[in-house]
Amino acid sequence: MFKVPDHQVAGHRASNGVIGPLIDDSGNFYKPLQNDERGSKEVAFYKNFALNSEIPDQIRKFFPIYHGTQLIEASDGSGLHPHLVLEDIVSSRPNPSIADIKIGSRTWYLEASEDYISKCLKKDRETTSLPLGFRISGLQIYGSKESGVWKPDKKYLKNFTADDVRLVLRKFVSSNSLEDSGKEPDCSFASTVYGGSTGILAQLLELKAWFEEQTIYHFYSSSVLIVYEKESILKGMSSGATVKLVDFAHVIEGNGVIDHNFLGGLCSLIKFISEILTYVPNNTYKAFPKKP
Amino acid sequence: MFKVPDHQVAGHRASNGVIGPLIDDSGNFYKPLQNDERGSKEVAFYKNFALNSEIPDQIRKFFPIYHGTQLIEASDGSGLHPHLVLEDIVSSRPNPSIADIKIGSRTWYLEASEDYISKCLKKDRETTSLPLGFRISGLQIYGSKESGVWKPDKKYLKNFTADDVRLVLRKFVSSNSLEDSGKEPDCSFASTVYGGSTGILAQLLELKAWFEEQTIYHFYSSSVLIVYEKESILKGMSSGATVKLVDFAHVIEGNGVIDHNFLGGLCSLIKFISEILTYVPNNTYKAFPKKP
């Protein structure tokens, strides 16, 4: 009944002796509750969010649907363990391309322990979080039936520079992304996936408008997941371009202040995506041609 | 010819043995160059900004006009010292109310020394910079000819909480701001100073739109100065509401990335100001009535 999801790109993956998320055939995603307070904090967030009447209806679609918690057999065989039961966003798609983008130049918050703060601050400084306001923490790019899927490991992503991020966000929407030809990514799916009234950029801008207003939550160490289906586009169907927020173990109360840390990082990501849409190829490879 | 400005609210003030800025009668503000690299960095910024053709014309008004550098007698009597010659924004106004608001939850940048980073991080954590994305680092509120001016000292401002910031931004535009009556600030100048098509909020939004696009500079430890003239309003004249960016000793190159740290803080300040404009007084004092 339960199985290990095929398309998980970040977080602990279930394997021998390691507890990880599970899925079922009904479109549910079972995320094991972390034993420390992170588990209970994430449950508290989902409960609060589900009942909060101040969340605009059009914003709810950016969050996984929450179906409560459930005791199920843990993936590591250690017995019954409480799991969050969530909407399965990606695992049910046949060949999704997925990027897990941790938003915010700061993944820690004042109320956390000094140990946690130093650990996070170190990671934020070593990755693109600090310079860019976000970091790519998980990635899976589907190429084609022949070339398969490119799923770089965490260590590779950790060492990304700003230029790597630019390149990979272009590869993400390219038909030649898995070729090792040294060619520039063609970005042939950019206008379909990133652009348009239902594309990734439009969704991120909708989310941004909410973050300019909302003072209920501050999201630390949460991710924006961007997902689409290359095969669907090739068949002339919808790209299935979707933006979802995930990972709420470090959400704290906003207390009447906007989440300027998340908002700043989100605006930075929006700028990266919008520059891909306005990118004009050139003889010399210049990712960001200056305006005249 | 040179004199110590009356209305300086932040930074080192010229006094016996302390070097500080000077003004003249022609509307110039002389800011002594700091001896370390901060001085040369600030000059480099002003020079680059003046010549940079990518700065939109309507954005230049948010920056003090730069007239070069000049060797003049230092205010501490120590002899000739190089000074930045800038437009005198506030000193020439008769009775300005001024807030110096340091923008950004982070006042340090990766390239700085470890010592500087720890010092800044500590200050950011101890003030409202981290929770709010900005801190009020200088303040002068003009009351009336009778009540005079309220100019709290730095130590007082340093201990501000989020609620203090909310209150003082309301006092800033109130006719009863200097009364110690325990009354709520009346915000009677809010719509004139913060609101309207030429008010502070409109100017901040114009600045925000630029920060969503510009990837030329990252402004660390820079301030937004907001200024207006209470007496002018009382005489039925323009409020003179003005927004200026100041303090560029820690501006670094943007390298194609937006200044998400400044933008986030600016959005937070915008939210604080806009909530004062939509504030509806109530029986019970609630600074931020929740939307129904």
UniProtKB/TrEMBL annotation, chains A, B:
Pfam families: IPK. SUPFAM superfamilies: SAICAR synthase-like. Belongs to the inositol phosphokinase (IPK) family. It catalyses: 1D-myo-inositol 1,4,5-trisphosphate + 2 ATP = 1D-myo-inositol 1,3,4,5,6-pentakisphosphate + 2 ADP + 2 H(+); 1D-myo-inositol 1,3,4,6-tetrakisphosphate + ATP = 1D-myo-inositol 1,3,4,5,6-pentakisphosphate + ADP + H(+). This is Inositol polyphosphate multikinase. GO terms for cellular component: cytoplasm; nucleus. The keyword ATP-binding applies. Inositol phosphate kinase with a broad substrate specificity. Its EC number is 2.7.1.140, 2.7.1.151. It comes from the Eukaryota. It is an enzyme of class 2 (transferase). One of its GO terms (biological process) is inositol phosphate biosynthetic process. GO terms for molecular function: ATP binding; inositol tetrakisphosphate kinase activity; inositol-1,4,5-trisphosphate 3-kinase activity. Keywords: ATP-binding, Kinase, Nucleotide-binding, Transferase. PANTHER family: INOSITOL POLYPHOSPHATE KINASE (PTHR12400), INOSITOL POLYPHOSPHATE MULTIKINASE (PTHR12400:SF51).
